[in-house]
Amino acid sequence: MGKGGEKGEEAGELEAQSRLYSWEEIQRHNLRTDKWLVIERKVYNITTWAARHPGGSRVISHYAGEDATDAFWAFHLNPSFVQKFLKPLLIGELAPGEPSQDRGKNPQLVDDFRALRKTAEDMNLFKADPLFFSIYLAHIIMMEALAWLLVSYYGTGWITTFILSCILATSQAQAGWLQHDFGHLSVFKKSKWNHIVHKFVIGHLKGASANWWNHRHFQHHAKPNIFKKDPDVNMLHIFVLGDSQPVEYGKKKLKYLPYHHQHEYFFLVFPPFLIPVYFQMQIIMTMIRRRFWADLAWAFSYYMRYFIMYIPFYGVLGSLFLLTFVRFLESHWFVWVTQMNHIPMEIDCEKHRDWLSIQLAATCNIEQSFFNDWFTGHLNFQIEHHLFPMMPRHNYCKIAPLVKSLCTKYGIHYEEKSLGKAFKDIVGSLKKSGDLWLDAYLHK
After folding, report:
1. In the chain, what percentage of residues exceed pLDDT 90?
2. CB 250 within 8 A of CB 438
3. Chain-centroid distance, C-alpha 179
4. What is the pLDDT at residue 1?
């Protein structure tokens, strides 16, 4: 009976493989209720599966009607394991006369990028150094301990409290970079262990939600700087970004805020409030609404530990103020580091580019130094991180020269700048977008 079932599955798979589709037909299936995508020339109907996708329904849906081969390899640690979930979704293949790439993408560029990925695998660049991540975790825990010892020995004076807050903010920022590593499955060989430690770091060390982060951040990586697909460029009408959105708002006479001053009110709105207000509210609401009870328990363990450590010194209200101030400091750090690689780059609607081109258009690098590596959690290598999100961060510098060479070959701009210029470019980009809005608002 078991063999008969296996034969039935094989027959069904062979029948599916015999069905041939054109890109024109596949591209019609990009609706909320009708989603197909292509992986290595095989066509899959993900309409019902999307809701059960472990990475979230939106990230996989963003590739409906498209070739998702490179995104598939970028996000899955064990593709052969994932294949068992794909088999029931298989409905056919691309017709022999159809190109492997959709929408006129350069097949040679795509092949060369995939060859680069194979080179990285041969160089063992997807293999993590356990000592690196052990030391990194240890230095975060040591900062947490140092902060508590500081208040224990020197009391709760203003100077002590300020130093303590800076130490805790540093610890939180670095824990943020570390959870990012585990969230991208770049530390352990098995996804299970990455997920477990990710929940510990983001939950117990930071009081946030792993599922919230996954569902939000993977969309950003899949379609960076693309409106309606990358949640990081959804500014809730507070800012207008890029070149097209400001003009669109201006022509429609949309003026939720004086956008020609956004480069000025940015300092008052974005860095101070992103983590302590917006993210905090979004995380709690997401955990409750989507019933992420395990994440809620991990987050609760963080707050329990924090208040047990600091209420004896500051009381309940004082501990709340201290935590808010720490989040306030961390938020500045987080915003400047995460936005310097993206806001000054191209931000626009979907253009259906290949994996290499879409990532290079949306990201830039910051010059390497020991401080820059530590301060940014190696996100100064944002280009390499976006091309290979599962690569351990300590290997970015090894693959970077090969990425530059590939970009040079195809005339793709590989942008690298100093840390100071990167910060300045955030403000300059916001000013440029604000000026475009004002011109369109007044004259178009």
Report:
1. 93
2. yes
3. 12
4. 43
240-252 confidence digits (pLDDT tens): 999 999 999 999 9
Residue in the structure block whose two tokens are 């022999």: 96
| CA distance linking residue 415 with residue 218, whole number of Å | 23
Tokens representing 353 are 């580019």
What gap in Å lies between CA 34 and CA 16, rounded to an integer? 18
The DSSP line for 300-335 is: HHHHHHHHHHHHHHHHHHHHHHHHHHHHHHHHHHHH
Distance, in Å, from the CA atom of 256 to the CA atom of 249, rounded to the nearest integer, reads 10
Point out which residues pair with 444 in neighbouring strands: none
Q: Report residue 311 as tokens.
A: 């209420």
Asked if the model's pLDDT at residue 25 lies above 80, the reply is yes
Angle at 274 between CA 245 and CA 185, to 5 degrees: 90
d(CA 58, CA 426): 28
Within 10 Å of residue 368's Cβ, how many Cβ atoms?
15
Q: What pLDDT does residue 14 have?
A: 58
CA distance 66 to 241: 26
Residue range 431-441, pLDDT digits in tens:
999 999 999 99
For residue 42, the Cα-to-chain-centroid distance in whole angstroms is 27
Q: What pLDDT score does 11 carry?
A: 53
Predicted TM-score (pTM) above 0.90: yes
Under 8 Å between Cβ of 203 and 302: yes
As given in the structure block, the two tokens for residue 269 are: 């709105």
What is the rounded distance in angstroms from the CA atom of residue 11 to the CA atom of residue 377? Answer: 49
Per-residue pLDDT reduced to its tens digit, 292-302: 999 999 999 99
Closest CA to 400 of 367, 372, 377: 367
The answer to whether 203 and 212 are in contact (CB under 8 A) is no
**Cα 207 from Cα 366, distance rounded (Å):** 29
Q: What radius of gyration, in Å, describes the C-alpha atoms of the chain?
A: 24
d(CA 354, CA 109): 8
What pLDDT, on the 0 to 100 scale, is given for residue 284?
96
